[in-house]
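An instance as discussed:

___
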Amino acid sequence: MTFLWAFLVGGTICLIGQFLLDVVKLTPAHTMSSMVVAGAVLDGLGLYDPLIHFAGAGATVPITSFGNALVHGAMAEAEQHGLVGVITGIFEVTSAGISSAIVFGFFAAVLFRPKG
């Protein structure tokens, strides 16, 4: 049952993104930004963590979880370190994912040369 809920929740998030692209005619950059902001707002309202507990990877894999991670890290560090914690919390929680994207992107660019 866990896999079904992950599929349905993740699919719904992707469906919303596709709706923004096709019907609302947002650019891919605007769609991605909107999804990150939606994840951040849902976490700020305390609704994204219950969604993660309910759907697992269906809520953690889509781009909305990046917004969730930004707000979650900022709020946790702000409680301990105040205003400075807001800035450091954002980088602390998301640094591993961003760093790995940069490293793997570099290796992909070195190994696979584009044709054209």
User: Anything to note?
Assistant: The longest helix spans residues 83-111. The two ends are 46 Å apart (CA to CA). The helical segments are 2-22, 28-44, 48-55, 57-60, 64-81, 83-111. DSSP finds six helices and no strands in the chain.
